[in-house]
Design goal:
elongated; His-Me_finger_sf; alpha+beta; six-stranded mixed β-sheet; nuclease activity; hydrolase; five-stranded antiparallel β-sheet; 27 strands; hydrolase activity
């Protein structure tokens, strides 16, 4: 009797006559003849390793690029057969126009194996087309990063999973987990085979990748995805069809030059992935509160209530010597709950993002309305980061300004094109390494060199100054306290001649409390005066306790008038 796998080889050889020589199955899988002829003679680990050796590495297609990228590839791979201007959405099972790619009302790029479960942002797995599908933005949000599993019981499952999803979809919340999601029946096997491929393709041996595993344990999300027993069931119930074979072939011939062996040889699945029925799964622990949830799940990074445009916040001082500090001038109103992110990470460009190596991010969260003109200061070691009563600072990673030169980027976070991704809404950039922004970037340590984000180029939204360990913006005293427009402040701040620096003495930014305000006026020529209020403070230069010869009290709250 001819083994079933050899029958598959013969069938695929006929189906692949139109493929390039290197991607035809009879050529691509050369060297695996012994495994394919007698797979029962090999262990699970041996088959897995032999397959990995064939499908790895692959030609990496950029996630986002001005050249051919994943958007371009999905336009072809997931094209609607009846309309070349549309793609078929994996979870919604309806078409959408290619022109709607990346729109919040359109479609995005779905990672079948979620980034938060081990795929990440910079490795070859991030843009692997065998695990990327076109997906409706809204229905994709229902999937989020949930495990795949059956969900038929209407008493506990949301059926359908979303108002715009087919009736054969479902989702359910499970305490202590991200929950489960059941995709449409027509693609359950397709998605299962994508996960089988990922678990074999990535064992953590390549840079910026993890050892991906399939599991039955829904509360195990550390480089792990599932639910394995259900995926095996779907693989059987929804077998490989011609559309799946064609897509697999196109990935090889036109893009990555590798194939998903579990589409070509579905019989191998049961030999590589052994179902344990979850016998050793731990009990998922329910989080005590939403606050605990945020802390434990790393939701430091979350979409901001506010959305900055270039110039909405400016850096007006820093200390890279002790005590390390950063001072900002907020030039637009920031509502309570609004956030400002500040990082010294290197920006590596669109489609790559930040270096994410040995550096960190600060986040200021407003506790009250922070009016335009307010100064907010982060001071290392102070409770709440030195929020001054208008908000608190938290940190992620190792925010460590380098005394040999570094950069600071200020931004808010908008919703990204993929679930769990973000759009960086840059407000300001400062580099204190040289008088021009770096053109040769590197992302290797605590003084990574990064490029200026495109959004901050071409206006008074960035400043590159020669190196000093510690610097502050001075400006003229009259200009500092007179009413200026936002643009007027930015023009002064982005003039390096208005800055002072020192390599041995840190500036005492604590003397300018958060809550000290400037007038940010809507029109040029308006003046600034104090209004009623009980809180007073002396006029001060930034970072210095210099007093006027005739001490004057100026109310914190000020207004612009003609």
């Amino acid at each position: 009797m001819i083994p079933r796998i050899l029958i598959s080889v013969l069938a695929l050889a006929i189906a692949n006559t139109a493929l390039g020589d290197d991607c035809s199955t009879e050529v691509y899988y050369q060297g695996l003849e012994d495994v394919l002829a007698a797979p029962e003679s090999f262990s699970t680990e041996e088959i897995d390793a032999r397959l990995r050796a064939v499908i790895s590495p692959h030609t990496v297609i950029p996630y986002t690029s001005t050249n051919v990228d994943c958007w371009d590839a999905l336009n072809v791979l997931d094209a609607d057969p009846s309309d070349p201007d549309s793609v078929m959405l994996i979870y919604k099972q309806t078409p959408d126009l290619i022109a709607n790619s990346g729109l919040s009302t359109g479609w995005n790029r779905e990672h079948v194996w979620p980034k938060s479960y081990g795929v990440g942002y910079t490795g070859p797995d991030t843009s692997d087309l065998l695990s990327l599908r076109a997906a409706d933005w809204s229905v994709n949000s229902a999937r989020n990063n949930r495990y795949y599993d059956n969900c038929f019981d209407e008493s506990v499952c949301d059926i359908p999973a979303h108002d715009e999803a087919p009736m054969d979809t479902g989702k359910m919340s499970i305490p202590g987990t991200t929950g489960i999601f059941m995709p449409p029946a027509a693609v359950r096997g397709d998605l299962a085979r994508s996960l089988f491929y990922m678990a074999t393709r990535y064992d953590g041996s390549e840079s910026n990748t993890e050892d991906l595993k399939l599991s039955n344990c829904v509360c195990d999300t550390s480089h792990t995805m599932g639910k394995l027993s259900t995926l095996l069931q779907w693989h059987t119930e929804d077998p490989v069809d011609d559309a799946e074979r064609v897509r697999n072939g196109l990935v090889c011939t036109d893009y990555q030059h590798n194939r998903n062996p579990y589409i070509d040889f579905p019989e191998l699945v049961e030999l590589v992935f052994i179902n344990d029925d979850g016998e050793n799964c731990p009990v998922c622990e329910e989080k005590a509160s939403d606050e605990d949830d945020d802390e434990e799940e790393g939701e430091f990074f979350a979409v901001s209530k506010n959305h900055f445009a270039p110039g909405d916040v400016a850096v007006i001082g820093y200390n890279s010597d002790n005590v390390k500090s950063v001072q900002l001038l907020v030039l637009v109103d920031l509502e309570a709950g609004g956030t400002i992110f500040v990082t010294d990470e290197a920006w590596m460009g669109e489609g790559v993002g930040f270096s994410r190596n040995a550096e960190g991010v600060l986040k200021f969260t407003a506790s009250v309305l922070v009016e335009a003109g307010t100064v907010v200061t982060w001071i290392e070691g102070e409770e709440g980061g030195g929020g001054g009563g208008v908000g608190t600072w938290t940190d992620n990673g190792s925010f460590l300004l380098s005394a040999s030169g570094d950069q600071l980027l200020v931004y808010s976070l908008g919703a990204g094109e993929d679930e769990g991704d973000f759009q960086y809404e840059f407000a300001f950039g400062l580099q204190y390494r040289s008088s021009g922004w770096d053109t040769e970037i590197s992302g290797t340590g605590s003084n990574d060199k990064g490029m200026l984000p495109e959004a901050l180029a071409g206006g008074n939204f960035n400043l590159a100054v020669s190196h000093k360990d510690n610097k502050r913006w001075l400006g003229g005293d009259e200009e500092r306290w007179a009413g200026l427009t936002k643009e007027g402040f930015l023009a002064l701040i982005c003039d390096g001649a208005n800055w002072d620096g020192d390599n041995s003495v840190s500036f005492d930014f604590s003397v300018m409390e958060a809550g000290g305000k400037f007038c940010v006026c809507e029109e040029e020529g308006q003046s600034c005066s104090a209004v009623e209020g009980d809180t007073v403070e002396r006029r001060r230069l930034f970072g210095m306790m210099l007093e006027k010869e005739e001490e004057e009290d100026v109310h914190v709250h000020k207004q612009c008038h003609d």
